């Protein structure tokens, strides 16, 4: 039963006591502190990096290098008055910010944050007990991530609907359509990882990526990684997919009617989700806390059991920089471009690539000729591309004909 609930991996031994409870409490506090401090850092990091790319200075007054600017902004928002629109659904209006904020916290509970991978299976020994550097390790950890990431989008949808105003409502409608469009592509790219790892457990996925060539970004052929990155960006409503809060069209989007700490919760949720989903991406495709060895050299070997944690931090920081780079570089898409990109490109490519990987996996198990399998896959994909393109052309001509009639 404890293995099913996965309250903590060390409870599988059936041991309870002050030390075990202290380890669990330490993990909970660490995740809570990581979420809050990481969010403060991410806000400062994004503003500082974007300002550098724009040839500006950025925050530089509050604390060293302006690093306390986020704390100052948060304190200011706490002092603001909380407003409640007359036509708002009061309960849902107050609940929505928490539906966006809490899932970003909870996802960290299933992400491996470190471990000893130098000749070990990632477990560490604390207070005489063997455990993993993650709060829980359920056998369906990836499903937990998908469920919580979907709940976060409902926070945006309900915030727009409950505001009693048309501009937030339009942002909520966009959020629902965007979620449906890109959740499918994200799930198909994730299926490629599960095909190779053979497990839904995040710790098992990390253990299967011991070497660089075993990393899923290499094993799956890079395409699922690229699709997951793009779909994840759309799920997080990050530029260039931030159509739910397009200020030139929707004033402020779904959060137009929010103020004070409620607005701050949406603000924190967005930046915390970037860090959280970067951790998920690193776990799925880049080995998580597994070290990147150059030969037999691990640059964090001196850190011992904390080496995996340092590797996790370095990998996540790299993706945070990529997100900021994308924000500073790419313009916002039009809404029709957003939909077309998700349905007409990402989903067909993700499905086609998954079928190719599945065929290669079956061919390897059945000892089929690899060249023949690849040739058959290319033939099927070519036929599918021709039929899909023809269908799009017919649909485009029908729309043009209908438009000409008016």
Strand order, largest beta sheet: 1-2
Structural class: mainly alpha
Overall mean pLDDT score?
A: 84
Radius of gyration over C-alpha positions, nearest whole angstrom? 23 Å
Number of domains: 2
Characterize the overall form. globular
Strand content is under 5%
Order of helices and strands: HHHHEEHHHHHHHHHH
Tell how many strands the DSSP assignment holds. Answer: 2
Number of distinct helices: 14
Report the span from N to C terminus: 65 Å
Largest sheet: 2 strands, antiparallel
Q: Which residue ranges are poorly predicted, with pLDDT under 50 across at least 5 consecutive positions? A: 1-5
Helix coverage percent:
55-70%
Could you describe the 3D structure shown?
The protein is an all-alpha fold and 406 residues long. The protein has two domains: 76-125 and 139-368, no CATH class; 370-406. The protein has 14 helices and two strands, in the order H-H-H-H-E-E-H-H-H-H-H-H-H-H-H-H. The protein has helices spanning 2-5, 18-53, 69-79, 90-107, 141-162, 166-197, 202-207, 216-219, 223-235, 247-250, 260-285, 307-329, 335-366, 370-405; strands spanning 124-126, 129-131. The protein has a two-stranded antiparallel sheet. Helix 2 crosses helix 11 and helix 9 (223-235) packs antiparallel against helix 11 (260-285). The longest helix has 36 residues, at 18-53. It is globular and about 65 Å long. The relative contact order is 0.12.
């Amino acid at each position: 039963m404890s293995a099913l609930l996965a309250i903590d991996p060390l409870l599988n031994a059936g041991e309870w006591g002050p030390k075990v409870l202290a380890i669990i409490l330490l993990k909970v506090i660490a995740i809570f502190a990581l979420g809050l401090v990481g969010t403060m850092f991410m806000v400062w990091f994004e503003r500082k990096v974007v300002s550098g790319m724009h040839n500006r200075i950025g925050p530089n007054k509050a604390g060293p290098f302006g690093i306390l600017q986020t704390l100052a902004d948060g304190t200011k928002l706490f002092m603001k008055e909380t407003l409640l629109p007359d036509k708002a659904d009061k309960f849902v209006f107050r609940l929505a910010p928490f539906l966006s904020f809490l899932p970003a916290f909870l996802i960290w509970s299933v992400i491996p944050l470190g471990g000893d991978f130098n000749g070990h299976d990632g477990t560490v020994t604390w207070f005489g007990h063997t455990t993993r550097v993650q709060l829980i390790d359920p056998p369906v950890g990836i499903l937990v991530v998908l469920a919580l990431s979907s709940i976060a989008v409902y926070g945006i949808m309900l915030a727009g609907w409950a505001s009693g105003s048309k501009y937030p409502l339009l942002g909520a409608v966009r959020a629902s359509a965007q979620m449906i469009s890109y959740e499918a592509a994200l799930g198909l790219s994730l299926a490629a990882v599960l095909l190779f790892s053979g497990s839904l457990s995040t710790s098992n996925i990390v253990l299967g990526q011991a070497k660089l060539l075993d990393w899923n970004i290499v094993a799956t052929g890079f395409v699922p990684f690229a699709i997951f990155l793009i779909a994840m960006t759309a799920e997080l409503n990050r530029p260039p997919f931030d159509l739910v809060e397009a200020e030139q069209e929707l004033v402020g989007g779904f959060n137009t009617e929010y103020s004070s700490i409620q607005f701050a919760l949406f603000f924190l949720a967005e930046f915390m989700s970037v860090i959280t989903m970067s951790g998920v991406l690193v776990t799925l495709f880049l080995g998580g806390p597994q070290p990147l060895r150059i030969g037999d050299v691990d640059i964090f070997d001196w850190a011992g059991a904390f080496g995996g944690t340092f590797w996790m931090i370095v990998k996540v920081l790299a993706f945070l920089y990529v997100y900021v780079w994308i924000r500073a570089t790419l313009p916002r898409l039009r809404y029709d471009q957003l939909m077309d990109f998700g349905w007409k490109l990402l989903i067909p490519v993700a499905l086609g690539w998954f079928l190719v990987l599945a065929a290669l996996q079956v061919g390897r198990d059945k000892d089929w000729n690899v060249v023949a399998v690849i040739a058959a896959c290319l033939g099927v994909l070519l036929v599918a591309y021709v039929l899909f393109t023809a269908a799009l052309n017919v649909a485009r001509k029908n729309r043009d004909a209908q438009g000409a009639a008016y």
